[in-house]
Amino acid sequence: MASAIIARGVEPRSETSLVSLKCGLMLEKPNTPGALMILTSTNSLSLLLVKRGLENAEAYVGLCLSVPRDANTKVRAWYSSSLRMVPSRTLEIICKFPNHDFTISHRPLNDAESKNLEYAFPSRKATEFCIVSVNLSCDPTVTGFGIPFSGENETIDGWINEDAPIQGTIKLTELLQQRSFMLLVQATGEQAEDFFGVAASSFKPFHYGYGNNHAWDMNRYNHQIPRNRGKGFSPRVHYDDFNQRDTALTQMHKIGDEPATTTERFVCLLEPEGIFDPKHWRATRRALKGDFAPARVEFNELIEDPDDSREPRNVTWTVVQLTYASDLLRRVDLDNRIALGLRRPASGKDRNYTPEASKDYRSALDTERIPLKLICESGIANERKRIDAVNRLSRPGTWPTVMANDTLSKGKRAALNDILIGQGLWRVWKTASSFRFPHFDAFDGVTAEVRDACLAHVFEDDRERAQEYFGKLHFGIGLVSAAPGMGKSHLASILITLLCLNPSIRKLYVSAASNVATDNILLRSSNIVESTVSTLAGAGYPVKRLMLVRGYNGKMERENCFKALVGTPFEEIGIWNSSPWRFEHSLCWWTLRALGSKTAPPLTSHDCAELWSLHQHLGSLVSATPKVFHRDYTDFIPLVRVARGLITPEEYLERYTKSFQNRSLTDLMAHVISCANVVATTPAASSYDPYLTFNSKMAKAVVFDEAGTLFRADGLLVFGNTPRPMIAVGDPKQLAPVLATAIERLDVRRADRHRDHPDLPTNRFVGEAEISWLSWFMHLGIPVFHLHTQHRMAKGLFDMMLEASYDDIKPYFKYSPICRPIDFPLGIKVEQYVKIKHHLPSGSPDSLLPVFFNTLNCPCRNYPDNPSRLNPRQADCIEKYLEPMMKELSIQPADVAVLTPYRANMRALQKRFRENQVLREVVCTTIDTFQGREAQIIVVALCVTAKTGPSFAADPRRLNVALTRHKSALFIFGDINTTRKSSYSHEDVSKSKEGKTLLDPNTMDRVFQMIRASRRIVNLEGDPDVDPDRYWKRFRTFSRFQ
């Protein structure tokens, strides 16, 4: 039996249950020495002595003051620190007594005190109480002070926000600074003494065991990680200190424990006859996750006189990974093999090499194996940037530098650091009691014309609320949370437009977690900007078009711009091109416009004033009477000439060196980007020039879209350590950030796992990824603006998920008038089709409902050594149902999208659809990649069955995405008994095999219960000939991913 990997690190500390005692605070009456008054609990104030130990934290004893928040959450809603997104109805301020640095004494009430007590509390006896005196030898730790608060009434609001005396007795700030407390406690003296006992080990400081240095250091990691193996740590919002926070946020992004030959990549040799060492197998799978992830191979063939080096080197080709069930891998045995697609280079001497190749798979089986070196991009560079961003929180110096001119920048930087520890602002207040974190009014300085033009795009139900919320942003931070179809990105686009037209902002940075999400928010923003500017200009308002740049990798932008200048075609995103680059709105596109190239739309005087000025200056360089407005501009003359056809590409290439070409184009792009109003990139791209300079020196505000999928470190990478106005938009109930190491175990194969030792994770801080950039601020107490009106789906189609996942918005929820079924003709046609064909019941006459297709005898499969699953018979059922329906109803492929949790199942569906003339253009993709998109008809292929259990498909966040992408109809294909016969355990949670998940079957259970109640279920029988069982029996029974 294989030896187990032993845990050596600090054990996670368990949570201890909350214990509390009711109490009152005895205070000396003002101007009456020796006379006491009692501050007691009322409906407006709760006073408790509390004793608690949170997970992985130092336990404490302290005094808790709790006051009710405003019950009206229509404009601002608050959430507790619970990761289950529990609304917060009260503000808790806790004064934690320093463990082992306080003394207590207690005594019974004297006669006078007993009479006063019985008079004040006629139902209580004096013997039920005692007087406890607490004396601290150092200042207490205070949490919850200074975070945004709106009280139930003006009196309560005054206690917290204006520091008015609480019930006419003592100010909150005076109370929290005390080192001596006299408490009237509802307990006996013995009970009180036992309550204050802090001898248990949980009252000692907790450390994760990774030290205080969190800077990127591969040598330290290679020793530190193995020494600290152990069970995973639970995620936290409130940390004891900044070291705990920085440990969790940096260690989360440490990639595995495999040694790296450099900090930028790792190298492994393909060994077809054996299995990689587990750590290399993990690393390779991680780097090649998904189709078409970029990688390279080196052949055992030298180029003697290479173009880019004096020394001979190996031939190198770009490769892309091909996942299981791809068309190119039909009938190919993939057991213990990694499938790659090789691309011949477009130019250079590497192109001349041709490897030995066979015409088909069968003939290749007998050929001699060729050794290859596989070079995968590890993403370490991006992880290092994330870790640097976390460390920047505790360092001196203001970033972004655009905030250096703010007179409050030092206080704001300290305040943000404390806020993100989760302790509130007490420490900042003690240091500078005069400091007040100012609110930000997004409408301040904006003219009435601009304000009205922007608000006109806001849905009517949200308009007044939006003006109130964004007119007073606490700490300058605005959070927008809403269920799908309620206009989150639409509102974000309006706010981007408003901030661009706000004279105090004008330039801002926009970011989203993925390239798709970044593309989406820029496109939406561009549409709103164009409409708003057109409206203002049409009314005679002096305004120019805004410049919105979609920034991609800087090298990619330069290469494509260079290709456009010399007449070489460039390739946009496609199946054999892993680059996400698109031409329109790219930095390349704007640079070509500035140069006056015919390959991009011409600029006019109505465009961005700064860019038009640059364009004019560049044009003057090659005019009949040349003028140089800036000494650096002389280097741009060749670029202007070749862009405008004044010299040929051949002349340009012959006259100027490559280094001059690269330098001049890089410099010009820096000038172009400085003209922008908006730069939108992923967080990774934001850490490289020219976007880094724009973000640091020019962007006075930041907007995040799909912030519920954004890592906290990614948010910090863009936001910095000194606050500026920031708006984060998303849905914390949809997909959380996806961590590369989320599913990895140190023992790759189950056979390697020792029954006497725990199955240990590669990354002990995986749980921290559950907290996104958006949910972090929500849990920290920043008020949230909710959208409540459904605008996308026909009435009735959101009801299921409203009950299953979004029941907290039910008091305010409604469908927009544009959601009447009569306005969804395709939905009505589909509803009539299924009702007639299957005699299904319908809901009310003015609503549409989902349909569940119960696929019988459709087993779920998975290939050995691959975590992904597929269900070929279910895919066959989907094809056979959709084809005749689409023909009969004349449904266009663009109106249909098929979603599935698993990549292998996606490929199985794509393979079948490509062979079908009707379905060839129908989108088939994973649920994760479709977030933020929509279609008229959504088909969800769950893939799993009662035998497999819900597994990865039961993730409530993933279900929330899958079952909310539709407009007119929702079809769900699956096994209706998936949740009935399965059992769940913590082991199932930790061993989900594809992506990170909170395996909570309750959401899927509720969905299935509502489907059964609706009786809209169609039974379909799988065809055994489509996917014979004998095919799968030929694989070894063992699989890493069983």
UniProtKB/TrEMBL annotation:
InterPro entries: Coronavir_polyprotein_1ab, DNA2/NAM7-like_C, P-loop_NTPase, SF1_C_Upf1
DNA2/NAM7 helicase-like C-terminal domain mapped to chain residues: 774-976
GO molecular function: 5'-3' DNA helicase activity; ATP binding; hydrolase activity
Keyword entries, A-Z: ATP-binding, Helicase, Hydrolase, Nucleotide-binding
Origin: domain of life: Eukaryota
Pfam families tied to this protein: AAA_12
Descriptive protein name: DNA2/NAM7 helicase-like C-terminal domain-containing protein
Species of the source: Fusarium oligoseptatum
